[in-house]
Structure prediction request, 496 residues.
Amino acid sequence: MRDKPLRIEDCSVSFGSVEVFQNLSLEIARGEFVAVVGPSGCGKTTLLNLFSGFLKPASGTMICHGRVRTVYQHDSLFPWQTAAQNIAMGLRELNSETERSRQLEAMLRLIKLEEFAAHYPHQLSGGMRQRVELARALAGSTDILLLDEPFSSLDYLTRLRLRRELARMLKELPRTVVLVTHDIEEAAQLADRIVVLSDRPAGICRELSVSIPRPRELTHPKVVETVHAILAEFGLEQT
Amino acid sequence: MTENQSPFRAVLLPLTVLIVAIAIWSALWLLQVFPPSVFPSPLAVAKGLGEEIRTGRLPADLVASLFRVTTGFMLAVLLGIPVGLWLGNHVRSRLAFLPTLNFFRSLSPLAWIPFAILWFGIGDLPAIFLIFMACFFPVVVATLSAVASIPSVYFRVARDYRFSGLELLTRVTLPAIAPQVITSIRVTAGLAWLVVVAAEMIAGRDGLGFAIWDARNGLRMDLLVAGMIVIGVIGMMIDRILMRLTKIRSVRWGYER
Prediction:
């Protein structure tokens, strides 16, 4: 049980007459990095909402052991708090003041934004804001990190850079991660396992595992091969 | 940014406009475009102003008006924000009350003057009542629409980070609505200052509004203009003071992005 902190079994979800999932099952192992890819509107975010407990399935079971935090696409930092104050939210459960400030500094160092600690989110670039979001979610003692298209509002190069940063951060602070994305490269470059969802009602049409260590080069043959396999699954490249 | 470039220019340019305006005023008076009995000279107004200050009438009127504005306005803000918070969080109540709120918000507070006098007589109370009626509804509507438009993602984040009930209010809702509420406070404070003058003209025995009405009845156009100048200057000062609220660092996001 404990080594499968996230599990959904035979879950069905529908919004009115629209069936999003029908009898979907998915297990995620402790420390595993799972990416969920699929056509837009297939219910990727709904899946995350199930995991975070924000949404209850109409039928089936959802089991979640551990503390969950979500990183959103953009603009979920509190704009009335500085970067440091936002990250400190993640350290709320620590009782010792000195320990809190020690860890806060460590997080700021980890995302290389020490000089921007006192800046407010609107004074930071998009990439910096997402780094603060990641730091806030990783700060303190959480177990499960849900990433809802965390880099999709960034430009291509920033996105590549942040993928490396995320890989580096997870090396220092290992977590169980579920990444929902429409960016196939991102999935191939980051995840241990990639779950490909079909169109609505969504089911898992393919699972791929990528067993090379992170950080991975985007042009690593195994990454390229995985991207090809996913594209083929969507009928966008020849098998 | 550009308007803060040089404090020297920020003083010099408006001062130039003021001097030109006084020059035009003097010219109109010298050319006798209007009869001198209804068009005082700048000098006469300055003398009148000095006289009003020396006799202590102006300071007393100023205190009376400021007391009414502060009381009525503070009552409206202190009651309006909680009511707005509540309505912002309760969709059914909001649907029920919003048309009523908009009705009273659109109703000129001056329309209440007859009732204000009949119910509260003459003095502080009718003016405070009118100011309250002018400010309460705009504050409620601004607060409730600010609450209703808080992005839901903030509450999802707050849930992830285990904010408790009261913390949701103090650490999410209130800071999230602060910029909009401050803007509405600035607007309604200006409104309160407009209303107090009208209220005192009709339902007052003192205050700046009464002072200009009294000057008109005594055909003292110099005192009338002196009163007008004081009313305008105080109004500007009230806005300048409240504008400082928008400089608080944790609300800048609401004005800069």
User: Anything to note?
Assistant: The CA atoms of residues 243 and 249 of chain B lie 13 Å apart. Chain B has a mean pLDDT of 93.
